Structure formats: structure tokens, C-alpha cells
Amino acid sequence: MCTKRAPIDAVAVRLAGILTRSRVVTVMSAPPPATTISSISILGADVNKQDLISAVADESGLSKGDAGKAIDAMVEVVTRSLKKGEEVRLVGFGTFLVSDQKAREGRNPKTGEKIAIAASRQPKFKAGAEFKRALNG
Questions:
Q1: pLDDT over 90 at 44, yes or no
Q2: Mean pLDDT on 64-71
Q3: Domains detected in the chain
Q4: Whole-model pTM above 0.85?
Q5: For residue 71, which of 132, 9, 24 has the smallest C-alpha distance?
Q6: Taking CA 53 as the corner, what is the angle to CA 52 and CA 54, rounded to the nearest 5 degrees?
């Protein structure tokens, strides 16, 4: 079954195009406005997806539906890029990358018995300098 997907908005479409065109992905952006961090921090100790959607909608002027679609599109594009082994760099924010973990031997904590731990690929996030500065004042 073929479904036709309408573009979320010009930014999401451009972001998706940029992320899928190159091996190492870099998205240039201006530093986030100071209000972005404060608007999310007032939501509470933990921010869930709905809180994030509301904050993005408020900051960008998008409807909550469009903000949710944009966030879903970003998560999908980042996931797809990482599955291909590509890095996703959001300049000023950070880099999403994949780390390959070798197979190794571990121990069962209850019995002390040796067990084989299979090789795996782990997602990683490395915070950018501007993001670190924003968090540390």
C-alpha cells in the first residue's frame, strides 16, 4: 500500500533533505534564543514528548499538531541516519552518533557465572559547545 505524505512544513522538509543527502550530516543554525531554555525549564523537572511539543509550538508559532509532526520527523530522520552509520550534527546543539561495542565476556551478578555479551551498536549524543555554555550560565 502506498501512502502519500504531505510535507510537515518547509523547515522539516529541508531538514529531512539535508540529513539524508550526506554521510556526515551538519545542520547550521543560529544559536537558540535564551527564551527557549527557560520556556522548557518551567515545564517541570522532567519534560516528556507532549511537554516538548507544547514548548516547540509556543516558540515557533506552529500548531501543536505541526510541532508534533516536526519532532516525529526529526526523530525518524536521526534514527534512519544513525542506522546507516551516519553522524547527525546540529551545530550549536550537539552530535548524534553510533558507537560500536565489541562482544565481551561478563558475569551474571547473581551466580557469578561467565556469560557472553554480544556486540551491539549504541546511540550516543555529544553536546556542542554552545549548548554546554547555555546550560552552565
A1: no
A2: 95
A3: 12-135 (4.10.520.10)
A4: no
A5: 9
A6: 90
Interatomic CA distance for residues 93 and 132, integer angstroms: 8
Q: Which residue has the cell 549504541?
A: 122
Amino acid identity of residue 87, one-letter, is: E
**Burial of 120 (C-beta count, 10 Å sphere; 0-12/13-18/19+):** exposed
Q: What angle do helix axes 64-83 and 10-21 make, rounded to 10 degrees?
A: 0
The mean pLDDT value of the chain amounts to 78
Residue type, 43: L
Indicate the range of 28-42, 56-70, 119-133 predicted with least confidence: 28-42
**CA–CA dist 53, 58 (Å, integer):** 9
Contact 98/126 with Cβ under 8 angstroms?
no
Please count the CA atoms within 13 angstroms of the CA of 72 that sit on its side-chain side: 10
Distance (Å, whole) CA 84 – CA 47: 29
The one-character DSSP state at 3 is: -
